[in-house]
Amino acid sequence: MTMEKRALAIEVRTNGRRLEGYAATFNNPADIGGRFIETIAPGAFAASLRGRNDILALVDHDPGRVLARTRSGTLRLAEDSKGLAFDLDLPDTSYGRDVLALAERGDVGGMSFGFTAFDEHRDGDKRELRGVELHEVSVVLSWPAYQGTVIHARSLEKPAPFRLYADRALRILELMQ
What we know:
The protein has one domain. The radius of gyration is 15 Å and the shape is globular. Strands 1, 4, 5, 6, 7, 10 and 11 form a seven-stranded mixed beta sheet that branches. A four-stranded antiparallel beta sheet has the order 2-3-9-8, covered by helices on one side. Strand 8 (75-79) and strand 9 (83-89) form a beta hairpin. With 177 residues, the chain is mainly beta. The chain has two helices and 13 strands; from the N terminus they run E-E-E-E-E-H-E-E-E-E-H-E-E-E-E. Keywords: Hydrolase, Protease, Viral release from host cell. This is HK97 family phage prohead protease.
């Protein structure tokens, strides 16, 4: 099985040196390069989140620019009724500072995720992801793939762990990575 990557406009906010938001949203159709329309079913990430896999947070899918990881506790992931929520502590590195500055300005394109599908349903040009092995989530600096999520910047003065806000939202079209 081949690892696939999907990018999407997501809700991201900064809280000090943290980013929070959604790396994927459920039941939100995406045109995957004109080849098929894809949706993610609720629970698609459940096996990965229960497993002992080390999931990374990267910049633009680049394994040389690690932002956080589940093994160290600097990346936290959870499914809720909306999708795959994330909360990550940004490192004090050049790319960590760049991501923070871009997120605070509203210039981050969105989020993406790298996965291998192990349970999917196809019907003509429609594909539903029902179960995936999640390898990584990525901050996408340019164009994301899935619609329906938004990006936020927040300061440390307004902490709200793992909650998402709808003010100052930026909606961006998705694009396959």
